[in-house]
Amino acid sequence: MGIPTIETVKEALTFRSSWRRPPVASVASDAAAASFDALTIKLDYLDPAEVRRVRDAYRFADEAHLGQYRASGEPYITHPIAVAGLCADWKLDAQAIMAALMHDAMEDCGITKAELIERFGAPTAELVDGLTKLDKLQFSTREESQAESFRKMLLAMARDVRVILIKLADRLHNMRTMESMSADKRVRIASETLDIYAPIAHRLGLNQTYRQLQELAFQYLRPWRHETLSKALLKARGNRRDVVERIQGDVEKSFAQAKLKVQVFGREKTLFSIYRKMREKHLTFAQVSDIFGFRIVVSTLPECYLALGVLHQLYKPLPGRFKDYIAIPKANGYQSLHTTLVSPLGTAVEFQIRTEPMHAVAEKGIAAHWMYKTKNSGATNAQEAQRLGAMWLQSLIDIQDETRDATEFLEHVKIDLFPDAVYVFTPKSKILALPRGATPVDFAYAIHSDVGDHCVAAKVNGEPVALRTELRSGDVVDIVIAPGARPNPGWLNFVRTGRARSKIRHHLKTMEQEESQDLGLKMLAQALRAEGMEMPLDDASGALAPVWQPLLRWSGNRSRDELLTDIAVGRKIASIVAKRLSRLLTERGVRPDAVTLTMGRYGADEAPSQGMVLIDGSEGASVQLAACCRPIPGDSILGYLGRGEGLLVHTAECSVGKRLLGRDSEGWLKVDWAEQPTRSFETGVSLLLKNGKGVLAEVAASVAAAEADITHIDMGDQAASENAELKLLLVVRDRLHLADVIRTLKRSAAVLRVSRIKP
């Protein structure tokens, strides 16, 4: 056991439970008992036997948390009771209520999962375990710990959606009772809530919880702005009271005349949504017109559309502001008709029209499926809730499968938590919901990962479009694929879904590993030839296992491919590995060959294929051409193996490369160009020009005439004068092609001097 740090002690004192005992313990216990009695009143929807089990869970949690107090001085047990009360408001089952009461027992009190299974059964224990953070493991940073705990919670949530419902109730109560915490901790927890938990609540349709979490986070993150907006809204509420009352009176009168029985509720925009709208659209508070709105609740689905007709007859609708979320529900199951009307006073007023079941889902989301249940439908409702939750959770599981780094996983999840969505169609009229700003590449990966990996082009509404085009609701998207195609790293700059981003990154990492393995094999083979031996090949019989297994134990690698990758990126030195491998081969009876030994050590110049790594341009991320000298075929080159950076190729006369050679001579490898490179290469040229009209066009025409391409132009920040210096980045095949380009440029009357850029 190590000595606890100041940070550890501070965390223990401020976050969970302070071990301070109030002066009068009996008063505290009475308060806890009173709060449990209040919880019991909410449990009238449970059977008496289930209530008894909940009471047992309370007694167990009360004993476990005995002597623990919150930062406010209240007994700690009041927090689990409050969380259980929020779950009871959603009418969750007895197992969920029990798990809510004991959700901190494993984390804070040392209770084991086995104890919970024995006492309360496996389902309840699994719920509690899913809610327990991974604090007992060692992590290098707080962020890593949070990311791993979050990943664990999501995996548990995928098995049982009740995990996240309890977690959201836990977070909501913590947010309501943060006054006693330190300011920096309040900001950290509020920021995490706004970034992760509030969007999760929205994705699961828990709109009440979503709005409350947003408001509380806003209050702690921007206290001054929150207070200012609160005062402004209070004033506006008084000023517009007459307007709101008049509109509500007109609406109720119209429905009475139409003999349509409805419930009319006033709706006020939350402070955070006002603040966000002001920031996004650069508006003042006075310019935000839809602060107030109305919800119309009807009995049946056809009455939704009848009510819409009544409203459109009463006030004129704003064009383009009607949305039918009944025909096309949101991804979280939300259904309503939205329309914005212009009142007689010229103000825009939004109306939301829905049935009572739709209203329950709109406010409670998947939790609504536990509410209003009957004896026969309880199990069905719970299954429906799990199904709705799994629709989004499955995409998170796919991301988890391909992302081993917890922090990267959290990044993908954050990207995937966009509240706004666009609805697009496949050519076969299937509807897909994607985040706003999604592109055809996101659409392709939403269909299937193979479609995304082999995507080459797209058509939207029958017209060819660029892959970075943002999709709009109602678009019909058709993806064109090619068997040999593969993801482009540039896609990461514009894709919006976490699924697409994780799939692209996973594929690129796999490609890099394959390329690195090929390079590592070449380098090890080269180093082994210097020892007079040829590279042993893998065979189906496994006869070479006695060679590779001790080599891997010595190197600390799990597989042959991992060892080759380490050699390619510089984490292992090829010559040292080769000496060890040659020793093992010698023990197996392999003797060094004199000819191979001579060619490996001394004949590299005469036989490059024997002693050098050949570069053809297809190596990918494992081999990089240095940006300082930009080597091209025909240049004399050397390769520098940086530690963990792969092979970096410099020209032999590069001054940067020469300095590296002086500092680390052992890191250099002999490399050469392959006879037939697979692509063109970039290099830089500098031009001195007569400044005048059309000079740049003339230079571009000369480059095009020499069959080269310009990828970048740099004119610097020099003031206008008679002459101008211009730097071009050209794409050429080799040195001969570059020489041809330079000759063509020199023929231009505007070019005074041209030369290749060398460091």
Report on this model:
This protein is an alpha+beta fold and 759 residues long. The chain folds into four domains: 9-221, Orthogonal Bundle (Hypothetical protein af1432), CATH 1.10.3210.10; 227-370, Beta Polymerase, domain 2 (2-Layer Sandwich), CATH 3.30.460.10; 508-673, no CATH class; 681-756, ACT domain (Alpha-Beta Plaits, 2-Layer Sandwich), CATH 3.30.70. Helices cover 50% and strands 15% of the residues. The chain has 30 helices and 20 strands. A hairpin with a 5-residue loop joins β7 and β8. α8 packs antiparallel against α9, α11 (183-203) packs antiparallel against α12 (207-221) and α12 (207-221) packs across α13 (223-239). The model is unreliable at 1-28, 134-140, 371-382 and 602-611 (pLDDT under 50).
Q: What is the CATH C level class of the largest domain, in words? A: Mainly Alpha
Strand content: 5-15%
Could you describe the largest sheet, including whether it forms a barrel? Answer: 6 strands, mixed
The end-to-end distance, rounded to whole angstroms, is 55 Å
Q: What is the CATH topology assignment of the largest domain?
A: Hypothetical protein af1432
Overall structural domain count: 4
Structural class: alpha+beta
Give the CATH superfamily of the largest domain: Hypothetical protein af1432
Shape: globular
Number of helices: 30
Helical content (DSSP H or I, runs of 4+): 40-55%
Number of strands: 20
State mean pLDDT (0 to 100 scale). 76
- The CATH architecture designation of the largest domain is Orthogonal Bundle
Low-confidence stretches: 1-28, 134-140, 371-382, 602-611
